């Protein structure tokens, strides 16, 4: 016979309190929380209170521009992997990127995220020119362009880029290899440490629901965020794309993704955590659920429609409806911020 439920429940709540106070748990303790569905609400509420205490009620907005869907990588889950010949490829011109950035700035955005496939056309020097031009506006620039050499990251930092997003995707070595042909977990980690060293606010994160991904490996992912001292963490449930090798696999589990988000908030209380589009795509209320489980960032996509339709890293990507977002936020006592929203802006 196991423990009576109330004793067990008390034990689990204590574990969550311990995570909140100590900002770390053992891997086995993280797994216990991830596998127990009876404490989900308690976990979300605790993460929400930590979010409120450390980063407040304001939501930072990040305007996303998907400037090229050309990619040399072949990630098993990704709709714009190079082997997917059904994708109509595009690459914005320098002026188009700058025009969109100016528009974002005019619209009041204080952060711009430039995302693309791993498109070698954009050499560091060329991208640096673009970044310099964009930085003439009073706007923070985040890059999300994949793996590059230290020297390239350095050129871009010196051009004025403030932040960089590079998800580790999974810290499970075997799974990493299977999902990313020709790539290595070691190099991904090296890139992240290089970015940190160069002074970028560095973002990483994982995909939740990859085939054969274990709770142990997800727990290791969370410990990796802590070890890196990541400044931003993006967690997304996998959404399987019909034109990829993962087409017959189920989607990731939203609740599990939210639990990973919540635990991340407990371990790294002052960082920035987006309510990701993949969460909203799986559930019409996913974004609000995330904002009530530790998230404090939303990333509206301002890419032009004709490009957006070709940047299908997964199917059914939903957009942010600004008016609806404002209303939804009001309902949960939150409001949009007009600050750049660096980690260092968050009070600790
Ligand atoms: N080339 C850049 C940008 C990748 S796209 C880079 O390598 O960092 C941004 C993120 O989308 C990826 O890090 C991945 O976690 C996520 N993504 C890709 N395919 C997905 C899918 N099928 N479902 C959910 N998220 C996905």
Account of the protein in words:
This protein is of the alpha/beta class. It has 14 helices and 11 strands. It has helices at residues 5-22, 27-35, 40-55, 94-106, 124-134, 150-158, 173-179, 185-197, 215-228, 254-267, 277-282, 286-291, 305-308, 322-331, and strands at 58-61, 63-68, 111-116, 140-144, 163-165, 201-204, 207-208, 232-233, 236-237, 297-298, 335-336. It has a 6-stranded parallel beta sheet with strand order 2-3-4-5-6-8. Strands 10-1-11 form a 3-stranded parallel beta sheet, covered by helices on one side. A two-stranded parallel sheet has the order 7-9. Helix 3 (40-55) crosses helix 10 and helix 9 (215-228) runs parallel beside helix 10. The protein starts with a helix and ends in a 12-residue tail after the last strand. Bound molecules: S-adenosyl-L-homocysteine (SAH). S-adenosyl-L-homocysteine binds next to loops.
What share of residues are in beta strands?
5-15%
Helix content: 40-55%
Helix and strand element order: HHHEEHEHEHEHHEEHEEHHHEHHE
**Main sheet?**
6 strands, parallel
Seen as an oligomer or otherwise, the chain set is single chain
Strand runs, count: 11
Overall average pLDDT: 96
Low-confidence stretches: none
Number of helices: 14
Broad shape: globular
Strand order of the largest sheet: 2-3-4-5-6-8
How far apart lie the N and C ends?
A: 44 Å
Summing up helix and strand content along with how strands pair, one would put the structural category as alpha/beta
What binds here, in terms of ligands, is: S-adenosyl-L-homocysteine
Radius of gyration: 19 Å
